[in-house]
């Protein structure tokens, strides 16, 4: 049935396609790439605006654009935030290739010059609920330990939060971190955190573009129900060799980029390593001195332009955390991803991107003692084939369609030991195919009305080799086992995922937007700790674990003030999640062949109001973000079947971010965050058992942590040494400047002073953390 | 395995972390009945202790459940009503603890009925016990550390609890390792393992009389103690998993564990 549906859907897609292509034959097309004039980097989502039709297009993620117009003379503006806009007039009487290079705007540039451009994407774009981060902006904000982190900066936007102090797992509109599709150059990243979540794996030096989509997710994305975090790596300077780097409190960074063949091929290598473990060398304890505690990231990318029509990209990421005590104990984990992409222009209207992607997350754990040795490893691997096409039939339609298939290999923990009596434990591997086909159209219906509508069909096939079991109704005992051979598909899920976004321009300054999306997620992360743990386990859907389904509607009002200097938006959303996973008390999710016996299933709900006011132009920039939201979960077996707030449910969440250019040399910035404390479980009583005083719990997450607030400040000093090749800057940062003792956790325990009493002890992590980083470039 | 790691990281950041006792307003729950009772394979008498829960910030005095009707049957048709010898403590007189038998506990307290049952597992025997001296390190206190040895029973489905008594009392944990204080072990991934267990949280000293108990218990017992450890080690927030009550084998909202257990003991004097 599913296969049939798939074919019918594919056929319908083709039909729509041909009608649009034939309709568009009479006009001429302007197309090309928009680049940074100094580095040759492609500019993503640069605006190409045509005065005569009061409309325009954006470049795609490869910097490519295409506009089809009637013949005639047109005034065109090409603009991109942070760059000097370029006006041009062209006479269109044939299909025209128009490559464009934009100069980065200098700091001294008059505000008026910039605002003359069409900086009203906030109002005009059809996409709502999306956040685009400017890497330069991120770099000037205060940070913990001097480490710039896109994930933490994203959490300063409305609708996005982290779990608490020093956590980088993002909760987007009430979703959990594993419900975010995190793509690094199209490769899914399965564990985006280092050091138990204190840092993210994204080295800001290697990143070019960050986009988070919270709602109205377009049909070209699939596989996770909450959000899409699409991160693009730098391509490397194609004009000259350059080196950038930084020395920080806990880590150093070095990036080398340059042309392989000038204007044709470039590369970038970017690395980062922490050296917290070097402090351990100062210890007088032998055990501590031989300890290891660090992480590293390595980003590599190269591209080659065969012709105007063909371009090849190869990118990779390798990162690992390493822990160890001498040779007795070692524990390391990390991601490796690789992406090979081929951009091809069939014509100036049809753009294709085909890719092969590999992604791997794994951890290894081993303990040695004399001759005895135990070791443990686990992971997940993906092999992805994907083709995305973009067709620009006319200026009013931008058609995207594509197909993808992923081969997943899930490797649950396997345990080996040479100690007699220890049994080898191998939880059987699981294999699955996840496929998707989509069609979407970005359609300008009238001067005021535009819509993105699309449909995605996703399918998930569980395949052998596996011994698949059936459980009894209570999900406690195995009743039957079937053995399937390699490649045998024994269970299929699938579903249609409609996506819709509509925007209506009320006037030049304001618009209303509406979106709906259904998303499906076939793989699930099991984690019963409060934070990201390297041993968290990805599992596929199975006969018992149903695919997660998310439905979201969002409505927004967008308005710009003062010639687009101020951008504001109000959004409300409602989200309903099905087949959400939780755990039985005492669940063993690490070593369990029949993992479903430990799981519980229910529904989730989230709704909220998000306000944003932002100023991105001028010497003073920044934003104020406010989120009012509730997120709950409901499971038959937990909390007496009543719905309860999830841990990251925060009622109020405020972020204020500001940055001010004092002089050409100095830039200062400050951020202040406030949020209602996380929902948390506190005891309702206590009792004695076995000589221990034990807390007694009744209500799940019925209490709140104390309110969280914190202010961070930073200053960046950069002396622009004109004519000199070597440039450097200093960044000073103070995290938690007024030393607020925010609660990280609260422990209920027997009092140390008076064993006859119990007390609540609050642990605060970072009270005040200054840091300094020296950055250089030559 | 996440635990030692957390330890390392916390150690690294400890110079910045800070702890303080805070005031929190907590709701109070209706007092609940807490059961702590065992039938073992020794000569008896067997004891069931019944207490109530208390409000969290009250002093650690727990009211006993008095005047309850407590009876245990052994699955062969024999039932005995226990006698309350001191407040909340109910004692058997002729009940025999025999491995393989299923014991059912019945409690009638304040008009409410609570039941539980447990099957006594096979008796596992301690082979030997010794101790080793360890000097002070970054993670451990100087002292003599007791190790005992036993061979895990052939086959699957065996669960054990290891208990140490120092001069007649269960000592407080000195070296914290993020585990315990109840050291339980199941054989799911082991078979006929020559098991050695060092009571690493408990340094002992010359002159101490140490009694080791190897308690064989049912799987519900393993689950109870395992989740009890989790409850005791959990915090609200941070890395901790959501704090929950231990998985009890008592019915109708009572808390605690009733177990039919087989106990092997060994005594060693530290020189």
Description:
The complex is a heterodimer of chains A (778) and B (271). With 778 residues, chain A is mostly beta strands. Chain A folds into two domains: 2-120, Carboxypeptidase-like, regulatory domain (Immunoglobulin-like, Sandwich), CATH 2.60.40.1120; 130-777, TonB-dependent receptor, beta-barrel domain (Maltoporin, Chain A). Helices cover 6% and strands 57% of the residues of chain A. The longest helix of chain A is centred in the N-terminal third of the chain and has 22 residues, at 2-23. Chain A is globular and about 90 Å long. With 271 residues, chain B is mainly β. Chain B folds into two domains: 33-119, Sandwich (Immunoglobulin-like), CATH 2.60.40.10; 126-237 and 262-269, Immunoglobulin-like (Sandwich), CATH 2.60.40. Chain B contains two helices and 17 strands. In chain B, strands 6-7-3-2-17-15-12-13 form an eight-stranded mixed beta sheet, with helices on one face. Chain B has a four-stranded antiparallel beta sheet with strand order 5-4-8-9, with no helix packed on it. Chain B has a three-stranded antiparallel beta sheet with strand order 10-11-14, with no helix packed on it. Chain B starts with a helix and ends with a strand. The model of chain B is unreliable at 1-8 (pLDDT under 50). Chains A and B meet through strand 44, strand 45, strand 49 and strand 50 of A and helix 1, strand 1, helix 2, strand 16 and strand 17 of B. Strand 49 of chain A pairs antiparallel with strand 16 of chain B, so a sheet runs across the interface.
Looking at this protein, list some descriptive labels.
heterodimer, A: 778 residues, mainly beta, Immunoglobulin-like, Maltoporin, Chain A, 2 domains, 22-stranded antiparallel barrel, 5-stranded mixed sheet, 6 helices, 51 strands, 6% helix, globular, B: 271 residues, 8-stranded mixed sheet, 4-stranded antiparallel sheet, 2 helices, 17 strands, disordered N terminus
């Amino acid at each position: 049935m599913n296969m049939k549906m798939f074919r019918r859907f594919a056929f319908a897609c083709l039909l729509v396609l041909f009608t649009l292509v034939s309709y568009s034959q009479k006009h001429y097309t302007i197309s090309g790439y928009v680049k940074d004039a100094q580095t040759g980097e492609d500019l993503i989502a640069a605006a190409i605006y045509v005065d005569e039709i009061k409309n325009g297009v954006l470049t795609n993620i490869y910097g490519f654009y295409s506009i089809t117009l009637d013949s005639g003379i047109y005034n065109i503006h090409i603009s991109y935030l942070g760059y000097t806009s370029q006006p041009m007039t062209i006479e269109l009487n044939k299909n025209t290739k128009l490559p464009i290079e934009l100069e980065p705007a200098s700091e001294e540039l008059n505000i008026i010059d910039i605002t003359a451009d069409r900086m009203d994407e906030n109002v005009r774009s059809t996409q709502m609920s999306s956040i685009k981060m400017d890497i330069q902006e991120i770099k000037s904000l205060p940070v913990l330990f001097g480490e710039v982190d896109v994930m933490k900066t994203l959490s300063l936007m409305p609708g996005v939060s982290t779990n608490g102090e020093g956590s980088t797992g993002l909760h987007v509109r009430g979703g959990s971190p594993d419900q975010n599709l995190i793509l690094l150059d199209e490769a899914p990243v399965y564990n985006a955190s280092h050091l138990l979540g204190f840092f993210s794996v994204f080295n800001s030096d290697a990143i070019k573009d960050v986009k988070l989509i919270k709602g109205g997710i377009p049909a070209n994305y699939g596989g996770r129900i909450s959000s899409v975090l699409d991160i693009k790596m730098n391509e490397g300077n194609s004009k000259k060799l350059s080196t950038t780097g930084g020395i920080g409190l806990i880590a150093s960074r070095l990036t080398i980029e340059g042309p392989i063949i000038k204007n044709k091929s470039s590369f970038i290598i970017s690395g980062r390593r922490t050296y917290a473990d070097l402090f351990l060398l100062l210890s007088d304890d032998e055990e501590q001195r031989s300890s290891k505690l660090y992480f590293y990231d390595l980003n590599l990318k190269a591209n080659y332009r065969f012709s105007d029509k063909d371009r090849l990209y190869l990118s990779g990421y390798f990162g690992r955390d390493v822990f160890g005590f001498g040779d007795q104990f070692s524990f390391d984990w990390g991601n490796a991803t690789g992406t090979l992409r081929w951009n091809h222009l069939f014509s100036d209207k049809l753009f294709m991107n085909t890719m092969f992607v590999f992604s791997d997350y794994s951890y290894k754990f081993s303990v040695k003692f004399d001759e005895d040795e135990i070791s443990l490893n686990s992971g997940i691997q993906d092999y992805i084939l994907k083709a995305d096409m973009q067709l620009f039939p006319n200026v009013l339609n931008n058609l995207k369609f594509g197909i993808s298939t992923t081969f997943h290999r899930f490797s649950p923990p396997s345990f080996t030991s040479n100690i007699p009596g220890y049994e080898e434990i191998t939880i059987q591997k699981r294999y699955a195919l996840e496929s998707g086909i989509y069609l979407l159209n970005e359609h300008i219906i009238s001067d005021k009305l535009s819509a993105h509508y699309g449909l995605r069909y996703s399918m998930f096939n569980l395949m052998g080799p596996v011994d698949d079991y059936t459980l009894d109704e209570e999900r406690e005992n195995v009743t039957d086992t079937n053995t399937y051979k390699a490649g045998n598909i024994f269970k299929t899920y699938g579903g249609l995922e409609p996506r819709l976004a509509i925007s209506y321009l009320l006037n030049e300054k304001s618009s209303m937007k509406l979106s709906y999306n259904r998303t499906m997620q076939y793989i699930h992360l099991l984690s019963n700790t409060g934070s990201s743990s390297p041993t968290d386990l990805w599992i596929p859907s199975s006969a018992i674990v149903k695919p997660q389904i998310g439905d979201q509607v969002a409505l927004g009002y967008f308005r710009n003030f003062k010639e687009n200097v101020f951008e504001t938006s109000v959004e409300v959303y409602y989200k309903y999640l099905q087949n959400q996973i939780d755990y039985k008390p005492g669940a063993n999710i690490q070593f369990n062949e029949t993992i479903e016996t430990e799981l519980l299933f229910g529904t989730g709900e989230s709704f909220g109001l998000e306000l944003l006011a932002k100023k991105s132009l001028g010497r003073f920039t920044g934003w104020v973000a406010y989120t009012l939201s509730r997120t709950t979960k409901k499971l038959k077996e937990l909390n007496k079947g009543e719905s309860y707030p999830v841990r990251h449910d925060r009622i109020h969440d405020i972020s204020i971010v500001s940055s001010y250019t004092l002089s050409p040399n100095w830039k200062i910035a400050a951020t202040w965050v406030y949020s209602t404390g996380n929902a948390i479980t506190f005891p309702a009583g206590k009792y004695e058992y076995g000589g221990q005083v034990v807390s007694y719990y009744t209500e799940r997450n019925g209490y709140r942590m104390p309110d969280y607030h914190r202010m961070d400040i930073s200053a960046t000093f950069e002396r622009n040494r004109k004519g000199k090749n070597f440039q450097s800057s200093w960044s000073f940062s103070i995290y938690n400047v007024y030393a607020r003792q925010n609660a990280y956790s609260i422990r209920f325990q027997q009092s140390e002073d008076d064993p006859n009493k119990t007390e609540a002890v609050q642990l605060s992590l970072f009270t005040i953390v200054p840091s300094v980083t020296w950055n250089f470039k030559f | 395995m996440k635990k030692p790691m957390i330890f390392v990281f916390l150690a690294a950041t400890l110079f910045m972390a800070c702890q303080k006792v805070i005031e929190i307003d907590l709701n109070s729950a209706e007092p609940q009945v807490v059961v702590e009772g065992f039938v073992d394979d020794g000569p008896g008498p067997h004891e069931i202790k019944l207490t109530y829960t208390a409000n969290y910030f009250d002093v650690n005095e727990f009211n006993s459940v008095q005047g309850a009707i407590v009876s245990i049957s052994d699955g062969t048709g024999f039932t005995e009503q226990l006698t309350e010898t001191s407040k909340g403590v109910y004692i058997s007189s002729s009940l025999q603890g025999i491995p393989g038998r299923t014991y059912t506990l019945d409690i009638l307290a304040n008009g409410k009925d609570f039941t539980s049952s447990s099957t006594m597992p096979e008796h596992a025997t301690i082979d030997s016990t010794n101790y080793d001296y360890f000097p002070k390190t970054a993670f451990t206190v100087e002292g003599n550390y007791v190790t005992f040895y036993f061979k895990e029973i052939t086959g699957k489905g065996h669960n054990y609890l290891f208990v140490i008594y120092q001069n007649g009392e269960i000592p407080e944990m000195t070296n914290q390792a993020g585990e315990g204080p109840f050291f339980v072990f199941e054989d799911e991934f082991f078979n006929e393992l020559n098991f050695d267990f060092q009571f690493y949280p408990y340094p002992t000293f010359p002159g101490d009389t140490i009694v080791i108990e190897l308690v064989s218990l049912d799987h519900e017992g393993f689950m109870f103690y395992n989740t009890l450890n989790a409850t005791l080690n959990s915090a609200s927030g941070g890395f901790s998993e959501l704090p929950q009550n231990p998985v009890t084998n008592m019915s109708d909202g009572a808390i605690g564990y009733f177990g039919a257990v087989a106990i092997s003991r060994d005594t060693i004097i530290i020189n």
